[in-house]
Design a protein that fits this description.
This protein has 540 residues and is mostly helical. Helices cover 80% and strands 1% of the residues. It has 25 helices and two strands. The chain has a two-stranded parallel ribbon with strand order 1-2. It starts with a helix and ends with a helix.
Length: 540
């Protein structure tokens, strides 16, 4: 029996290695393109790749990161440290902008400020054409796009900073207050240094989402690495592979920078958690705090959501037809299948990580975490090359001709697996490691196989964790745009691609509002659940 159990353990490790090798194939193809791309494709890329693509991408990342740090970190400090009007409302509602994808937020504000938009229409009707032209403000530029990204993504920093300020720095902040230190001094000298890992993680997520964007940058006419990748992919796949490899190196550079920013700082884990006492604010200071928290909420969620709802009511009779319901079903069906595949693979790898607390297990965790940082368009190009290679192998060794993998749902789901595996893996690994480790070990010590232990001991106790992981993956797949645009089958549309098609190709932002609202409502589910869990856990 002992020999059988050892074989079973090795079998799980082998399964994990096989899955990782399969997932790594697109990334290996991209890395190899840095050395194997023909000179003709390199020459084409050097001639066509605009020089400002790198600087635009970097500038958007910096603007979004800095503004998100101020918006997310500042509001998190206020709601965790002070009592003021609407504090409890802001403690969860400041996460709502995360429900609006960056490209939808950009489309919405472009529609609001456009010549035919509601703002210009009201000014023309009330004050005349001349005044409307004098007050016209063109938002289709890089600084404004960076600001819009910050309004959509600052909740990443807010949620990370809120957790850190509530618990990680609690005892030190309380000690500083007892010594007579003021709020600004405590923030700069104690809270921020202790919360550096959380802030760095939040800012890093913001920058990764900016790099992943295609819809907003394309709509605004700003050349970035991702828009250049789409343009290059259209006429030379080898040049696109090389560009994707360069973007991959750029992302890894940001990963290294994020690690350096963290330094040797780590989160504190104390057996007995403490919370920071809330300091009440009065009068002008209290209402100032309310005003500061309302700015990102109003501009990041309330205004765009209100206009999308208004446009949806106007355009619903025209949009709500058989085609709309078909693409809604496409989105739900695709996301459901992808979620099952991703959660099952993540559960297997997380269980392998638990069974093998060794160097190989650590490699699994690190590799999966890196996958989420890679932009969707980059993964899509790697998967496209892999599917083309697979079709060529089938045609060479078999009698059948044609495309079996390229342009198929199977390859699209495989790309989602590479992109979003870390989203499911993180909570599942945490649940397996922290919550029920002793029960699993007891089951295996009694001679039960790892598979039976997983199915009958670990999995029933992980129901809520699996549900959370599934919801997060489902929402990410639903709103993913660049990866879906490249790999979707012919004549197959989703809510995300339909939103982009109406806003960019048909130049009608109001007609994209119905699909956008469905994505927002679906995206609100994990944000609401996460906010409520953090409110209950941290008491803020």
């Amino acid at each position: 029996m002992i020999r059988s159990l050892r074989s079973s353990y090795k079998g799980w490790l082998l399964a994990g290695i096989v899955l990782l090798l399969l997932i790594a194939i697109p990334l290996v193809i991209l890395f190899s393109s840095l050395f194997t791309t023909p000179q003709s494709s390199k020459a084409i890329l050097e001639q066509t790749l605009p020089g400002e693509a790198f600087f635009n991408t970097l500038a958007l990342c910096v603007i979004a990161a800095v503004v998100s740090l101020f918006l997310g970190g500042g509001t998190a400090w206020l709601v965790t440290q002070y009592q003021f009007p609407l504090r409890k409302f802001f403690s969860w509602s400041l996460a709502l902008p995360l429900t609006i994808p960056g490209y939808i937020l950009a489309f919405t504000y472009a529609g609001i400020f456009s010549f035919s938009g509601p703002l210009q229409t009201v000014i023309r009707n009330q004050f005349g054409q001349d005044r409307a032209q004098a007050l016209h403000f063109d938002i289709m530029n890089l600084p404004v796009l960076g600001l819009l990204f910050a309004l959509a993504l600052f909740p990443y920093v807010f949620l990370s900073a809120k957790a850190a300020f509530s618990i990680q720095s609690a005892r030190q902040i309380e000690s500083a207050r007892s010594l007579g230190k003021k709020g600004s001094s405590i923030l700069m000298k104690i809270a921020l240094p202790l919360s550096r890992p959380a802030l760095a993680a939040g800012v890093f997520l913001v920058m990764m989402e900016v790099i992943n964007d295609y819809g907003a940058a394309s709509y605004f006419g700003i050349r970035t690495y991702t828009t250049a990748l789409f343009r290059t992919w259209g006429y030379d796949i080898q040049a696109a592979l090389l560009l994707a490899g360069w973007i991959l190196l750029f992302v890894f550079g940001l990963l290294i920078a994020e690690r350096l920013l963290r330094g040797k700082a780590r989160y504190q884990n104390t057996a007995r958690q403490s919370y920071v006492p809330i300091t009440p604010l009065k009068g002008f200071r209290a209402w100032t705090a309310t005003f500061l928290c309302s700015i990102p909420f109003v501009f990041g969620f309330l205004i765009p959501f209100s206009f999308l709802g208004y446009w949806a009511m106007q355009t619903a009779p025209k949009i709500m037809n058989d085609h709309f319901f078909v693409l809604t079903w496409n989105s739900i069906q695709l996301a459901f299948i992808a979620t099952i595949v991703i959660v099952v693979v993540a559960l297997i790898l997380a269980y392998v990580r638990k069974l093998h607390q060794s160097f190989s297990g650590k490699i699994i965790a690190q590799f999966i975490n890196v996958g989420y940082a890679i932009p969707g368009a980059v993964i899509a190009v790697g998967v496209l090359a892999f599917s083309g290679w697979s079709d060529a192998m089938i045609a060479h060794f078999g009698s059948a001709k044609g495309l079996f993998f390229t342009g198929s749902i199977a390859m699209l789901i495989f790309a989602y697996l590479v992109r979003f595996l870390a989203v499911a893996y993180q909570p599942l690994e945490a649940g397996l490691e922290k919550n029920h480790g002793s029960l699993g070990e007891s089951s295996r010590s009694l001679g039960k196989s790892p598979l039976r232990t997983l199915l009958f001991v670990e999995l029933p106790l992980l129901r809520n964790t699996v549900l959370v992981a599934a919801i997060m993956v489902f929402v990410d797949v639903m709103k993913e745009l660049p990866l879906t645009l490249i790999l979707r089958p012919f004549n197959f549309e989703t809510l995300a691609t339909e939103t982009y098609r109406h806003a960019k190709i048909m130049e009608s932002v109001p007609e994209s509002s119905s699909a956008a609202l469905i994505l927002i409502f679906i995206g609100a589910i994990p944000v609401f659940v996460l906010s409520r869990l953090m409110t209950e856990k941290h008491g803020t």
